[in-house]
Prior knowledge:
The chain contains seven helices and ten strands. With 217 residues, the chain is of the alpha+beta class. It has a single domain (2-210), classed as L-fuculose-1-phosphate Aldolase.
Amino acid sequence: xxxxxxxxxxxxxxxxxxxxxxxxxxxxxxxxxxxxxxxxxxxxxxxxxxxxxxxxxxxxxxxxxxxxxxxxxxxxxxxxxxxxxxxxxxxxxxxxxxxxxxxxxxxxxxxxxxxxxxxxxxxxxxxxxxxxxxxxxxxxxxxxxxxxxxxxxxxxxxxxxxxxxxxxxxxxxxxxxxxxxxxxxxxxxxxxxxxxxxxxxxxxxxxxxxxxxxxxx
Length: 217
């Protein structure tokens, strides 16, 4: 069945993304979680208590929209609730990634959103990473804190926690995490050398015009 082949491919890709997160230092120990929407609407997700750098396809669990396990012998992370909320908020989302990239998490602990208007690429791809207010892990507070940003952004910082990104597929969700951490790292460096400055309003408008990006309301 084509659906079975799709699931096998997604299982392999989740493991690949997990290794990339681990190799880039975006997760430590058993931190983070990854999920992807299957063709039948169920959600493939990483299990609790496993390093994302050492995942294997058979470790992954399939849950329903309510979070109940459909297939798999391992227990999913309780943080799957925020993944499920993202999928519920936007049917176009195909994958969600949660990680603790060091620089971005430092901004989350500080309680400061990221505004990436220093480079044209950031204006196009990720001009802002909002801050979701602190929520107690493993409670419904977490999905509630993330929900307002799903329709307007592709990422958010989780106050005192880490970062969450989403996209139409696994690679886009992962690349959003890379962009988020790059923005946080670059902001940290330019502040250290006293050089933080954004593009002018005119230049930002020009970039938005060229790439057909609507100005934020």
